[in-house]
Amino acid sequence: MRAFVTVGSTKFDALVNSVFSEAVILSLSQRGYTKLVVQCGNSTFEFADFVANGESQVLEKEGVEVEYWKFKPSLQEEFDKADLVISHAGSGTILDVLRLPKPLIVVPNPTLLDNHQEELATSLGDLGHLKATTAVLCRDLAKTIETFDVSTIVPFPPFDGSKFARIVDEEMGFI
Amino acid sequence: MIATFTVVVFLLAAFRLYIILPLSRTLKPRTASHSISTRRLAIFLGSGGHTAEALALLSTLDFSRYTPRTYIISEGDILSSQKAVALEASRAISHPKSNNDNFTILIIPRARGVHQSILTTPPTALLSLLTCIYYVTVAPILYSNESNSDFADLLILNGPGTCFVLCLAVYINKFAGLRTPSLIYIESFARVKKLSLSGRLLRPLVDKFIVQWPQLLQDRGRGECHGLLV
């Protein structure tokens, strides 16, 4: 099985350092993951120098093959291939992953000034569409991975374009 | 004498503002005659997540009804204009008979750059406002003898900052009694418990204020929620 981690267009040191920690790698290996792909962005972490010029690197840790790189123009292929996505709380990424659908663990970035990302993650978590956790303590993320029961995910509603079209048609006098 | 004059002007202006605010309105805004079968649509693409949501919403509309379309984009936001062109191109393929190529892209200066100092904001915001006024108010008057000269019948906004400036330009039209587009604001799906700054600013000003999470209307303020729209 394959897990994919994404930090978005900037950096998220706490998340990247967490996923490279022994606790998190072990929890993944325990759940049967043999491959981990990390989109690390401009985050600062132990192996950041190896990918500073846009390279893609691979290392082996606790029986898990870890591939990591900074950015790719589109993450769609990675989402498609993954059995689990661990992501920052960007609303675009959340929509993309939930609509596929793929199991999703969201880690809000506490260093962002506006905390509405956390609101969104927690609310969608409360509705059962995803798991929201923190990366400040590696233990939290590891525990979330260990206990995430994919069968309990509440399916996210599909895109229903008719609602907005009706609102606008009504406002503009077509209905 | 001057003081009395000032007070009278101020009172008249306040009364005019009261009349045009949607809160006090009982009549529908003046939009194009409903006998015609198309509406001119303008949409602001506020970059990043704003653009993604705006285009997802726009993609639900019947392009043969909502034509021509105007995409309003902040200066330097190349990604948003590429995405708008891509949406138009995909529509041209999937609906070859509808009104294709019927769109324009307007560029407006940013009201405030991402890391811009608070001191230099007023001049750039003013430049942004003047550009909006040109597109919304001045250009339609200058070219009033041409058909389709009005700015739009409908303006869709979903943040951030610069869309407030656009809304102000529309209010100048309202104030002067010129034809104005209906304003629809859709708060981002990412806003669950607290409205964004542009949401709070535009709430009393737009004709339709839509949120995607019902918690946002618990204050019993104006607005409607139809659940998730994107």
UniProtKB/TrEMBL annotation, chain A:
One of its GO terms (cellular component) is endoplasmic reticulum. Its EC number is 2.4.1.141. Keywords: Endoplasmic reticulum, Glycosyltransferase, Transferase. It catalyses: an N-acetyl-alpha-D-glucosaminyl-diphospho-di-trans,poly-cis-dolichol + UDP-N-acetyl-alpha-D-glucosamine = an N,N'-diacetylchitobiosyl-diphospho-di-trans,poly-cis-dolichol + UDP + H(+). Residues 4-144 form the Glycosyl transferase family 28 C-terminal domain. InterPro entries: Alg13-like, Glyco_trans_28_C. This is UDP-N-acetylglucosamine transferase subunit ALG13. It comes from Crucibulum laeve. The lineage of its organism: Eukaryota, Fungi, Dikarya, Basidiomycota, Agaricomycotina.
From TrEMBL, chain B:
It comes from Crucibulum laeve. It is a single-pass membrane protein. Keywords: Endoplasmic reticulum, Membrane, Transferase, Transmembrane, Transmembrane helix. Coiled coil: none annotated. The keyword DNA-binding does not apply. Involved in protein N-glycosylation. Essential for the second step of the dolichol-linked oligosaccharide pathway. Anchors the catalytic subunit ALG13 to the ER. Belongs to the ALG14 family. The gene is ALG14. It is found in: Endoplasmic reticulum membrane; Nucleus membrane. One of its GO terms (biological process) is dolichol-linked oligosaccharide biosynthetic process. Heterodimer with ALG13 to form a functional enzyme. The keyword Membrane applies. This is UDP-N-acetylglucosamine transferase subunit ALG14. It comes from the Eukaryota.
